[in-house]
Task: inverse folding
């Protein structure tokens, strides 16, 4: 009787092995599911980035506001009749300067 029980337990273990640890086992499916969800998150982030870049390219091709904005921000350009004013904070008035004194 003992041999039959041990034999059935061994068969059960042999049958369960592919289910849990085999090529298409539950652990492998769980790992693949996690990797698919990570890749989907990456794809969503890249799709948002692509949409942003596509809009920027469209603005640069069609409109002048994007070009003007870039020229002002990156090159310090101004329109005719405008005066460029840069405000430099006083070191004495900054909170960091007060911390250095203490």
Result:
């Amino acid at each position: 009787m003992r041999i039959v029980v041990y034999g059935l337990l061994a068969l059960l273990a042999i049958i369960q092995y592919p289910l849990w640890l085999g090529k298409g086992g539950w652990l492998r499916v769980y790992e693949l599911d996690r990797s698919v969800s990570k890749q989907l998150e990456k794809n969503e982030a890249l799709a948002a980035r692509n949409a942003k870049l596509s809009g920027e390219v469209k603005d640069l091709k069609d409109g002048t506001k994007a070009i003007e904005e870039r020229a002002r921000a990156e090159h310090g350009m101004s329109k005719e009749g405008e005066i460029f004013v840069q405000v430099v904070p006083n070191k004495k008035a900054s909170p960091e300067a007060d911390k250095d004194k203490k």
Observations:
- Residues 2-74 form one domain.
